[in-house]
Amino acid sequence: MGKYDGQPLPRGIHKYTTADRVRVMDLHYSADPVKDPENEAGFRWYQSQLSGYPGGAAGAKWRQEMEIDFEVLSGDKVFPDWMELESEIACDPFNVPEEWAVYAGYDYGTACNASFIPIAFAADDEMYQIDEISEPGLSVPEQARLIKAKPYWHRVRGIVGDPSIWRRNQSSVGEERLLSVGEMFENEGIYMDRGRNEPGVDMAFVALLQGYLWDRKLDPKFKIFSHCAKTLRCFRNLRKKQHSTAYAIANQDNPEGVVQKNIDEFDALKYILLSRGFEAPEAVECMPGTWGWWADQIEKKSRRERQYLR
């Protein structure tokens, strides 16, 4: 706890020196006897304050604001047993046989990471993430050069990308019109299909991982080379969205979704693995008006017409 003028610091007061030698003193609420949970008045105050914080004393908001714990992350872990799971999923790199097909997922980013994730398929039930390119602040030409410099580039049979990269919102030298990031990649000789990212897709991907690809911890169908540190860290820190109100907590109204922060590698994997046609155990409800919804309507109409012709 430290000392102040040679005496032990009072309860609720902590001091320390940061790595860059800045002296800091924390003042915790327990320093005030009226708010100290160890006495009756303080305990009543403590209980009254907890009711307004999602998740109570264990919630990230309380831990950050009241316990001065700025390292805590919001929400429950998507994979609470990740450390055990990672020991089975992470594998030593090996020379990938030339006949194995390689496909990749891509998630666009500027301030956050732009992630290109290649997967080698030995079979439909045996696949490996063999590499990761996940860097912030790179232009499309810089990303294209990194991707095409990889020794496996000539074996990539398809890339599935973030659907937002087809919005025409990029200016380019020598072009009179705005281009999309997808078109800019095409100018570099890299072609991508559009992935799925409508509401519900994140949790459908989690269900695919938990229910099929990682259903047996001792024999996972999808493994990740151990040098893909950013991808492994992404899964280690992946969190579910937290309750936003005390009412939601009381009614156990669990939000379905993943916290959208530092999940670039997760997104890139989502685009490619969901495109492979695995039977995900959780169906995705497409929002009306989205391309996925229109595709469903066309398929339903086609089925009705086939039934009528019979």
Structural commentary:
With 310 residues, this protein is an alpha/beta fold. The protein has 2 domains: 3-50, no CATH class; 82-298, Nucleotidyltransferase, domain 5. It is 32% helix and 19% strand. The chain is built from 10 helices and 14 strands. β1 (3-4) and β2 (7-8) form a beta hairpin. α6 crosses α9 (264-274). The longest helix is centred in the last third of the chain and has 19 residues, at 291-309. It starts with a strand and ends with a helix. Residues 1-6, 247-254 and 280-284 have low confidence and may be disordered.
Can you describe this structure in just a few lines?
The chain has 310 residues and is of the alpha/beta class. 32% of the residues lie in helices and 19% in strands. α6 (201-213) packs across α9.
Percentage of residues in DSSP E strands: 15-25%
Instruction: Name the helix and strand elements from N-terminus to C-terminus, one letter apiece.
Output: EEEEHHHEEEEEHEEEHEHEHHHH
CATH class of the largest domain: Alpha Beta
Structural class per helix/strand content?
A: alpha/beta
Number of helical elements? 10
How many DSSP E strands? 14
- The average pLDDT is 79
CATH fold-level label of the largest domain? Nucleotidyltransferase, domain 5
Instruction: Return Rg in Å.
Output: 25 Å
Shape: elongated
The main pleated sheet reads as:
8 strands, mixed
| CATH architecture identity of the largest domain | 2-Layer Sandwich
Stretches where pLDDT is under 50 for at least 5 consecutive residues are: 1-6, 247-254, 280-284
